[in-house]
Amino acid sequence: MIRIAVDAMGGDFAPKEQVEGAMRAIKAIDDIEIVLYGDEVTIRPFLSDDTRIRIVQSEGTIDMGEKDPIAAIRQNRNSSMAMALLSVRNNETDAIVSSGATQALIAGAHILVGRMKKMKRTAIAPVLPTALGKPLILLDTGGNLEIKPEYMVQQAHFASVYAREILGVSTPRVGLINIGTEEGKGRELDRAVFDLFTANPHIAFVGNVEPKDVLSPPCDVLISDGFTANVVMKTIEGTAKGMGKMLRQELSKGFLGKIGLLLSMRNLKRFKQRMAAEAIGGAMIYGLRGVVIKAQGSSKAFGFYNAIRQAAHVVRQDVIHKVGDVIEKDEVNNAKTA
Amino acid sequence: MIRIAVDAMGGDFAPKEQVEGAMRAIKAIDDIEIVLYGDEVTIRPFLSDDTRIRIVQSEGTIDMGEKDPIAAIRQNRNSSMAMALLSVRNNETDAIVSSGATQALIAGAHILVGRMKKMKRTAIAPVLPTALGKPLILLDTGGNLEIKPEYMVQQAHFASVYAREILGVSTPRVGLINIGTEEGKGRELDRAVFDLFTANPHIAFVGNVEPKDVLSPPCDVLISDGFTANVVMKTIEGTAKGMGKMLRQELSKGFLGKIGLLLSMRNLKRFKQRMAAEAIGGAMIYGLRGVVIKAQGSSKAFGFYNAIRQAAHVVRQDVIHKVGDVIEKDEVNNAKTA
Q: Mean pLDDT, to the nearest integer, of A67-88?
């Protein structure tokens, strides 16, 4: 049995959607059991079926707008997020899923779960829908704002293993976010990373990728530092939101337009679903000793269920050990070359 | 008379669309005359009306994919782009509009037109449509990848004057692109710029702006370094393109969907027009001794005409001198505080 810890109190619609998502996951996936961390009195009314689900009582939650996430975690060791993270560290569970505050989850994962051996930095990596119908891993969207080129090599290894094991891509291609496709483009960091990726035998590097191809990418993994990738993710979100608004305004103009809009309703809804990342699951935090999945703060039961499914899949495929092997091989390789 | 130099040979559809755009501008705007730089034999067939338009013969063009734009400009002093730029420097014209290669135009403008007194860096600043119906100035989308905080203050001054004089915003608000809205977010650069903007009496600073609000911005100017702002611009472009593709795929599904799509055609077209930046004009290169406007490489006559209109407007409003005054005042101010 794969044991999944759920932070039942984190997120905009907690604990209702988290509990419903957990029950849905239990029904759909045979080899998992779930531990809900949260307030039993609040959770119980939503838990209509507790097959393979138990509750562990926690006290308090980590606020979404927490200014000092590290302090928040240190001072709230009995919060649902902290207790769920600790359960992974103590090998009481195999993975944790949380819709709680991103920065607190990253900080908490560092402190309570700890980094993988030899992994220098963590990274957070959402999986985005594209116009090509295949998903794209984008990283690092919220970890290290300033980072060394060598650390990005490790993150590319992690993403490549993830793409192979979880997304089923046989040879995952990695692209570097840049302002031009030619070699030599970008900042000092980008040029250094370009050289390291090109030389590395474990990275199928396609070169620089301009963000104008972000929804039709020539790769499975798009990587940059934690500032740039976060900016890309939020610009996609902002453009999609803004375009959706303009589209509704324009489509509802005039008599024929209104009828057209009515007839297109179902298709527009499907379009909206396609743009939503919910169906794909959450963002994994790469580089930890355990599996930590960040589901969107606004997750409903379906989104949360998908994040649980994803967490189980990552455990089942033993992703973390496989990444460890690649990093090990890389070190041996570097030692030989040096 | 305002004298506009046109690089008639630069752009995907040169010289046809450039010449048609020029004739259209002459018809619409009374106080301008235009000099077309290019090959007379190629241009003449498109010039059905040469009222207030003359041709100056040039030799060769700067290639769009030029690897070394500085060398390209230096070695092609008789190209249409170089000659048009020089005409501004020599006060034979008041402004230049070009759809040619961006990097070559920036390099050429540096070499041939020169920077404004006391202006430390140039910046390129497109004006984008938003879902709020008002335009947004985004900078720097292609100049300085790595930049000092003080230089961004000068660029914010330029954008503020431009927004006031050209876009008619009485008190232009400036936002800093960042990964969170709270003070203290971002890289060292972002935090330093935040402090400088806050302290500057000539900048109406609204604080950090996340790119998820890029199409519904709480400001008139959005600023970051040349790498980040370029990434934002290209991500908007990529998301719009990708979403458009997905939308067409979804809307044309099923019988009712197809009818709906037919009825909505006109509205969808209007939506597309609204997303296109063409109607707003080109991107101005800030910080030069003269007015240099970069029209999109794919500009048609309408887009090019709008860029000419914009160039004339910038000359008429004497934007460059007004920016010079603010930078002067700022220096006096800094000297007092120091």
A: 91
The region, left, alpha or beta by phi > 0 then psi within -120 to 50, assigned to residue A316 is: alpha
pLDDT, position A298: 87
Q: Tell me how far apart the terminal alpha carbons of chain A are, to the nearest angstrom.
A: 44
**How much is the pLDDT for B243?**
82
- pLDDT tens, A249-293? 777 777 777 777 777 777 767 766 666 655 567 899 999 999 999
Predicted TM-score (pTM) of this structure: 0.91
**Residue B114 touches chain A, beta carbons under 8 Å:** no
pLDDT at residue number B111:
93
pLDDT at A171: 97
CA distance B149 to B154: 9
**B132-143 tens-digit pLDDT:** 889 999 999 987
Assess contact for A223 and A140: CB atoms under 8 A: yes
* Below-50 pLDDT ranges, chain B: none
**A332 CA to chain B: closest CA distance, Å?**
34
Q: Do A263 and B266 touch (CB under 8 A)?
A: no
The reported pLDDT for the residue numbered B75 is 87
CATH architecture of B1-119+287-317: 3-Layer(aba) Sandwich (3.40)
Beta strands in B185-332 (DSSP E): 204-209, 221-223, 283-286, 291-294
CB spacing of A242 vs B215 below 8 angstroms:
yes
Tell which of A243, A255, A261, A262 to mutate to test the B interface (max B CBs under 10 Å).
A243
Pairing of strands A123-125, A173-177: unpaired
Does residue B30 sit at the A interface (CB-CB below 8 Å)? no
Homologous superfamily assigned to A125-274: Isopropylmalate Dehydrogenase (3.40.718.10)
Contact at CB, B250 and A268, closer than 8 angstroms:
yes
Domain map (residue ranges) of chain B:
1-119+287-317
Determine the residue among B181, B223, B239 to mutate to test chain A binding: the one whose Cβ has the most chain A Cβ atoms within 10 Å. Answer: B239
Same fold, A1-119+287-338 and A125-274: yes
Cβ contacts of B67 on chain A, cutoff 8 Å = 182
Q: What is the ipTM of this complex?
A: 0.90
Q: Which CATH number fits domain A1-119+287-338: 3.30.1490.20, 3.40.718.10, 3.40.50.1980, 2.40.10.220?
A: 3.40.718.10
Q: Is the peptide bond before A15 cis (omega within 30 degrees of 0)?
A: yes
Residue B279 contacts A, CB cutoff 8 Å: no
A145 closest CB neighbour out of B130, B187, B215: B187
Q: Does B131 touch chain A (CB under 8 A)?
A: yes
